[in-house]
């Protein structure tokens, strides 16, 4: 019988330990949480200047993998729940990042 030990519970987060269960059940739970927790993802990236060794497309793809939490997510509709065409779709939520590395060392950018 699977066991769940809740370590901490808040309105916006839970920390728990899942024991005595098959890996497939744990993975199904993980996938459900990823798929059902509302987040915003970066879809369009515009680079002005990129002097890094990584190309623009690689950076844009990596940014798109980062789930962003925002109060605005509750005001948005899922694409699957609307009949709007792509050109009618809301513009989204603009995020801007202005960063410049002034040394030869890697610059760590966090939120």
UniProtKB/TrEMBL annotation:
Domain of life: Eukaryota
UniProt entry tagged with the keyword Acyltransferase: no
Pfam families documented for this protein: RNA_pol_L
This protein's UniProt keywords: DNA-directed RNA polymerase, Transcription
Stored Gene3D superfamilies: DNA-directed RNA polymerase, insert domain (2.170.120.12)
GO cellular component: a single term: RNA polymerase II, core complex
TM stretches of this protein: none
MF (Gene Ontology): DNA binding; DNA-directed RNA polymerase activity; protein dimerization activity
GO biological process: transcription by RNA polymerase II
Keyword Repressor: no
InterPro entries: DNA-dir_RNA_pol_30-40kDasu_CS (IPR001514), DNA-dir_RNA_pol_RpoA/D/Rpb3 (IPR011263), RBP11-like (IPR036603), RNApol_insert_sf (IPR036643), Rpo3/RPB3_RNA_Pol_subunit (IPR050518)
Domain DNA-directed RNA polymerase RpoA/D/Rpb3-type: 16-59
PANTHER family: DNA-DIRECTED RNA POLYMERASE (PTHR11800), DNA-DIRECTED RNA POLYMERASE II SUBUNIT RPB3 (PTHR11800:SF2)
UniProt protein name: DNA-directed RNA polymerase RpoA/D/Rpb3-type domain-containing protein
């Amino acid at each position: 019988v699977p066991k769940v030990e809740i370590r901490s519970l808040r309105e916006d987060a839970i920390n728990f330990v899942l024991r005595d269960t098959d890996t497939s059940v744990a993975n199904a739970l993980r996938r459900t949480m990823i798929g059902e927790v509302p987040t915003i993802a970066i879809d369009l990236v515009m680079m002005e200047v990129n002097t890094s060794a990584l190309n623009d497309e690689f950076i844009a793809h990596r940014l798109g993998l980062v789930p962003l939490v925002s109060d605005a997510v509750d005001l948005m509709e899922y694409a699957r729940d609307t009949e709007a065409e792509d050109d009618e779709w809301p513009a989204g939520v603009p995020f801007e990042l202005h960063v410049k590395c002034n040394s030869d060392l890697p610059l760590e950018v966090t939120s």
